[in-house]
User: Fold this.
Amino acid sequence: MQKIKHHHIGPQKSEAKLSLFTHFHLNQPFFSLAALCFLFFVLPCLAAEDTTELLGDGDDGNRSCPVHNIRLLDDEGEKIILDDDLIMPFSLRNTCGTCHNYQKISSGWHFNSADPAQTSAGRRGEPWVWVDFNSRTQIPLTQRGWPGTYKPTQMGLSPWNFLLKFARHTPGGNFGEINDEDDQDMLARGELSGRLEINCFACHHADPRQDQSEWALQVARQNFRWSAAAGSGLAQVTGSVSSLPDGYDIFMGAASDDPSVKPPKVAYDKTRFQEKNKVFFDIVREVPARRCYFCHSTQKVSGGCVDRENADEDVHLKSGLTCVDCHRNSIDHAITRGYEGEAAAEKKDSSVETFTCRGCHIGNDGLAGKPGQPGRGRLGAPVPKHVGLPTVHLQKISCTACHSGPKPTSEPAVVKTARIHALGLHGKHSLNEPLPLIYSPVFVRREGKIEPHKLMWPTFWGYLNEDKITPIPPDQVNDFAEDVLSEGTLDDSATWARITPEQITQTLELLAPEEEKANLGSPVYVAGGNVYQRDKAGKLITIEHPAAQPYSWPIAHDVRPAAQSLGAGGCDDCHQTDSDFVFGQVPVDSPLAASAATTRPMHSFQKLDGTHMWAFAASFVFRPMMKVVGFAVSALLLAILLLYGLKGLHRILSGREQS
Amino acid sequence: MLVMVVHFVAFRKKTIATSTPARKPLNKWLKLICSLIFLALILSFITLAGTGFYAAVCLDRPLTGYPLMLHCTAAPVFMITLALAAMISVHSFRFEKGDFSGLKRVGPGSKIFFWLAILAAPAVILSIILSMLPIFGTHGQEFLYHAHRYSTLIITTAGMLLIYLRITSVKAKYTVSD
Assistant:
């Protein structure tokens, strides 16, 4: 287990205080008592999180955003002056941190995944996916510990290697500011590359020159210290830390005879520097949607309407809202994710429940009447009538099932996401990975409600020990079996290089641990919902295991207009014997050729009985007839009541007259 | 159920007055058809009540799954047989002078429960049929759902008591008071 030491952001006040005490005679009773008091009462306060509210934190009541003509500071806290001999890139931690509490911000959802102890993981979400073509691996990773995912550290990914693989689509922070004593690469290269600080500009810089693709390129070059400056559009950065040998002095900038050694250099746009070396940045409180899109885009690659000109944006954005109108946060950057139960799951204030679909459109019963709680219709949200929809649907199905994501078809669409497939990197640095295949929407039952998910099938090698499968890093698999696995044909209809059962058998044999490591377990291959292992005779068999189950995460966007929701066309949208919602077929993605055409029915993910759903859907044919019969019978009974009622009344009245 | 038990114990032996005129005996085929209608009515009624109250009382949640399908299958049978049974029986169940003095072939209790059931039936039927139409929103659907629940409670109670009284009055026909 790697030890991760968390870098304490801020001055090491506790250490300074302790050193003073070494001058005192601690064997003196008075000083011993004082020392104990200090240890128990003062130290914890000093070591506690710095919650000081700085100039730019809080709310002075004015809704306009201050104009940011600011002086730039480098990562040593020195001012950036263009006349200096060595010009360094600006550090947003020190520049923005002058007015905004950086430590408080770093505890936010976008920056805390490396230290999940800071917050609850909450509802599972989109993972990182490590794809290795040769070993036929695609495995979901996250440090948050969501069920069905694996931690990068479990896969042998050090914080340094994680950054090089995935930091392209992050706003910085996370592993970029972690000190891992066991990470040799970080120790060797960290001084050269600098820290990958939180890139405030990734969200809050409205200038159209803000280029996250450039930022990602600099990260890939290990130019962590330079990445924010390069991405801001204020500077151009050349060279790369990756070309520098270990031990190179980045601050002295010593010239090298080796042409391949190109230390990074930053060249600022001097025309943008004002007198006193201040620079104007178009900083906004309300993050524009295009900033969010760099990491949170989804591209449909199959299933119709795949071209941008035919794809529609979320109806909320088209109506004038922005992402941050719902996904809000205060200075702590604990951004609202917007799902029901978030307050309890992530230990947030109950007011976050007002930012769910129900909170804006219908109102939260639990918060009704509480002072300051907005009711339904928030931000102009239309209040749905849901005419003709029995209320059981609202209990068993989430709002997003009918209103969000691609409209269901006979097979869910294959989609790509910015973070998993590295979308949005332009020019020759474009990656646009083909794998993993992610299917959407797949309707999955989670916590009693059916909701739309994106879904992928984990594929990886591992060791099965008792009931637990521990994944093997792809690098290790390739070390053992590269020759065996490198044979394969690329199927034109897929992106996997197909693997044969013989290759699996041979690889499992090669991966079998030696006697002294027998406690690792037996090697297995997880693919296509199955676990493959060798039996005692050496033959390949399949077993069932939860690790082979697909990993899925709920989606909420893009929201379709009401007229395009499920049910807008009547009950038949879902209650039909061939409805896509219930009977759609979800492909099982597997590198095995034999499993290429395997599918699973949608209702299996909803934990519904397919036979019952088919019979229930078939009965809907008779509903129009039943409505006619119902009205006719009711009319007849009311006629009987009326007739005999009037007759009875007549007899009563005529009886009275006679008497 | 308690009321039926108490009533049965208290009024086991009854005399039956013969003031109502003898009815013309029915054609055997008509008799058979009427019997089948009443049998279908009772069976569908039992199915509907059984599935409905099972979900409400035992599961404490809305009816779903195969019991719901059974409920929906029995419903049209119940509706049609109820209408036919009502047409067949309505004349016998009309209130008459002296209904509450002495015992009749069809006692006043039966008539009260008959008309109560006929009154509740349109509410039972319409509350569920109207929910299938795109007319009512969420609040309306909730109202219709509760209306269906409470009207079925009324019709079930009235129906059970009616059946009970009819059975006991048939038994009493063969009892001669001393």
About this structure: Chain B touches chain A through 41 residues (CB under 8 Å). The two ends of chain B are 30 Å apart (CA to CA). Residues 27 and 33 of chain B are 10 Å apart (CA to CA). DSSP finds five helices and no strands in chain B.
